[in-house]
């Protein structure tokens, strides 16, 4: 019976805290910039067919690719003590070579230059 009453107490307490946070976090000042979403660096209230910079899109794709690669590198580091040393070195070397080839290709295609 005691556990049931404690559970009910915490249930009502958490609901009370959620309702209080909703009341206190109510936005009272409505501004155009605060109400509009940020869309790729241009004003979403204007014409929807304005062309945006393709270079901006390519930089975001490059960022996402390298972000995923960093997550894969972290997993390689954790495997260091679990696998054979020669296998770990071969796998890490192969992965880093692929990264460097991709970086060289992006540099060769001038995708890393922001001013173009």
UniProtKB/TrEMBL annotation:
The keyword Electron transport applies. It catalyses: a ubiquinone + NADH + 5 H(+)(in) = a ubiquinol + NAD(+) + 4 H(+)(out). One of its GO terms (cellular component) is NADH dehydrogenase complex. It is found in: Membrane; Mitochondrion membrane. GO terms for molecular function: NADH dehydrogenase (ubiquinone) activity. InterPro entries: NADH_UbQ/plastoQ_OxRdtase_su3, NDAH_ubi_oxred_su3_sf. Keywords: Electron transport, Membrane, Mitochondrion, NAD, Respiratory chain, Translocase, Transmembrane, Transmembrane helix, Transport, Ubiquinone. Its EC number is 7.1.1.2. It is an enzyme of class 7 (translocase). Gene3D superfamilies: NADH:ubiquinone/plastoquinone oxidoreductase, chain 3. It is a multi-pass membrane protein. The chain crosses the membrane at residues 6-24, 54-80, 86-104. Belongs to the complex I subunit 3 family. Core subunit of the mitochondrial membrane respiratory chain NADH dehydrogenase (Complex I) which catalyzes electron transfer from NADH through the respiratory chain, using ubiquinone as an electron acceptor. Essential for the catalytic activity of complex I. This is NADH-ubiquinone oxidoreductase chain 3. It comes from Bombyx mori (Silk moth). The gene is nad3.
